[in-house]
Amino acid sequence: MALLGESVCPYCGVGCRLRVEGARGRITRVRGAEFAPANLGRVCAKGALLGLTVHTPDRTHYPLLRQSRSGAFDRASWDASLDFVAERFRGIIDRHGPDAVAFYGSGQLDSETAYLAGKLFKGFIGTNNTDSNSRLCMAAAVAGYHTSLGSDGPPTCYEDIDHADVVLIIGSNLAEAHPVTFDRLRAGKKDRPGQRVIVVDPRRTATCAIADLHIPIAPGSDIAFLNAVARLVVENGRADEHFIAFHTKGFVKYVAFLMGQPLADLIGATGVPRELIEEAARLIGKSKTFLSLYCMGLNQSTVGMWKNNSLINLHLLTGQIGKVGAGPFSLTGQPNAMGGRECGLLCHQLPGYRFVDDARHRLEVEHFWGRPQGSISPRQGLSAVEMFQALDERRLKAIWIAATNPMVSMPDLHRVRAGLAKAELVVVSDAYHPTETTRLADVVFPVASWGEKDATTTNSERMVSRSPKMWDAPGEALPDWQVLCRFARRMGFADEFDYDCGSQVWDEFIRLTKRRPCDMAGISSSRLNDGVSLQWPCPDAYHYGTKRRYLDQHFPAPDGKAVFLPRDHRDPFEVPDDEFPFILTTGRVYAHWHTLTRTGKVEKLMARDPAPYVELGFEDADRLEIADGDSVYLTTRRGQIVLRARREAEVRTGTVFVPFHWGDLFGEGNALNYLTVPVFGPVEKQPELKFCAVNVTKVRRERPDASRTPLAMVEVVHRS
Ligand code: SF4
């Protein structure tokens, strides 16, 4: 066995560094790199089994093109398929203007690609219609950091887990979604028995195995919980007056706001006993170091940004930020969701944490790209959900989808499908075909996947790493950034997209981060290519990176102060009623990642979680006469699906839980997201995937539909 290389895992945002071993062209072993700060030698089952996802029968080898949606795909050359796409793009832009086209990317894309997608579409084509599936994942955290602290980006690092007296896990099933970070916390807790872990989650998830205190709040009541805790911290005399006086603003208004909220009302909204909230406030108030870990449970909400603000308020109130073992720590779901933010892929952003609606920022970037003033539109582009709604309304005519599978992951899939059907042009770049989305495309571009290209990514703790190419991509597959460059040349921008290698792209991008909050000017390709990983800010070539931000307690706001933002509890958009009396909440399971394009190929992972299901509490299941394994209809205002039931003692009465991973390839029309609601918050524009109203009824007579049995679903995946 030979060491093929060290690479960052392409799944979740923990960003585990992996040692990849192989022989005779096959990967034989993947294990955690011992000295990597993210994982310290650990790896979860998904990472360890990555080798089985590389040489699968459904890898894309050649460009695929078809003249009509009802026709079959034909193999095409790169020249022919790129000419076809460029000609269609040019025609649409000529007829309807640049805002009629869009690029929908992913936190899976490396930073080189994310940067070039923004450069091409925002700087040269002239539309800000670039967004990413990070919008479904972290947009609320981005907006929360920015509004409360003055800049996006977590202040913390994984090592803080080892130093925190109290860890608050809220809106995160860490054990299944970020298992290596969970293992670190669990192992560290054994060594430090005084550490206290509070888990706030409507469900008693696997993460609760290490909880000293589990607070099963009502779904959607996070702000009420956080405000109740904050009020009790103030009443207990545990506010950090010195920190508040010198490093924050807005405190007086915030305290008046808290005191104006009757505690009984706040606690009533959470639906949990007062003693649990008092205990949380006591633990947090007296802790020397308080760290919070959070994820989609806070973010996927119409008030996701407000939830983030409320959590950060609690850190400011207790002075628990800008020191070892403390701070708010958002856990990104994807390997390079952070990098996409740094590169400005979201529709309101420009590279280096700049914004399209800031005239100075536009000018700086236009100057850097050699573009005339006014080239970058001052209007925010379409965000993820808006793109598919705009396709459905025929305002958007063409979409290029890269490294993501929106026909599984977006809310309200019936409308997503309708939008894609109405589009004049759907281009999908993917390493696999068919996916639920490539099936609806006009053109499928084959792209290099993990291990087949040099790729720079940033993990949840701001650690920038470059994963080297370890083996060749199949057939004619190319790195995504090269596909974009070939397309850009056909769009008339040959000189501006003429790069010899990805390192050149990266070194251009980091110049745009100089003196910005995410300063990566010192993280050059030459350092990354030597296998060095560095945390930004890292402003020069001699800098060794920054583990923790704000240690000087100076925040990147104009006056250097963080701001308290009073936020009150709001109900989710669609609350239960007589017709749809249950709350549908969604999440992930340990064995799978996103839409199964990789994990669905691994038998061991499929054996652990072979098929979708719905979890119901005992009380509801008894009332509806539903036994384990029964089929049940789930019906919302947007659609109906059928799933097998699991009775779970710990699911709250009135709530059902469904994991989101399985799409149409596992049962046509039966994916969870046919049910979810496509509403989003006004600033962060992150959809409320965690909450909608649903009806649950038992299927009295089984339909003879074998594709919905778990066994058949496994077979479907291996045939695909
Ligand atoms: Fe990969 Fe995440 Fe597992 Fe680490 S925890 S091996 S990054 S899936």
Q: What does this protein look like?
A:
This protein is an alpha/beta fold and 720 residues long. 31% of the residues lie in helices and 18% in strands. It contains 24 helices and 28 strands. The strands form seven sheets. A seven-stranded mixed β-sheet has the order 5-4-18-17-16-6-7, sandwiched between helices. The protein has a six-stranded mixed barrel with strand order 23-27-24-26-25-28. It has a five-stranded parallel β-sheet with strand order 10-9-8-12-13. A hairpin with a 2-residue loop joins strand 2 (17-23) and strand 3. The radius of gyration is 24 Å and the shape is globular. 60% of the residues are buried. The structure holds iron/sulfur cluster. Iron/sulfur cluster is lined by residues 9, 11-12, 14-16, 39, 43-44, 46-47, 178-180.
Supply database-style keywords.
720 residues, alpha/beta, six-stranded mixed β-barrel, 24 helices, disordered C terminus, binds iron/sulfur cluster
Write the layout of secondary structure elements.
Layout: E1 2-8, E2 17-23, E3 26-32, H1 45-48, E4 64-65, E5 74-75, H2 78-96, E6 101-105, H3 111-125, E7 130-132, H4 139-149, E8 166-170, H5 174-177, H6 179-191, E9 196-200, E10 213-215, H7 222-235, H8 241-247, E11 248-249, H9 251-259, H10 263-270, H11 274-286, E12 290-294, H12 296-299, H13 304-317, E13 327-330, H14 337-343, E14 349-350, E15 354-355, H15 359-369, H16 384-392, E16 398-402, H17 406-409, H18 413-422, E17 425-430, E18 443-446, E19 455-458, E20 463-467, H19 480-490, H20 502-511, H21 525-529, E21 534-535, E22 562-563, E23 582-587, H22 603-608, E24 613-616, H23 618-623, E25 631-636, E26 639-647, E27 655-659, E28 692-698, H24 710-719
Parallel strand pairs: 6-7, 6-16, 8-9, 8-12, 9-10, 11-22, 12-13, 16-17, 17-18, 23-27, 24-26
Antiparallel strand pairs: 1-2, 2-3, 4-5, 4-18, 14-15, 19-20, 20-21, 23-28, 24-27, 25-26, 25-28
Helix pairs in contact: 2-19, 3-14, 3-19, 3-20, 4-13, 7-10, 7-11, 7-13, 16-18
The site of iron/sulfur cluster has 14 residues, from helix 1 and helix 6.
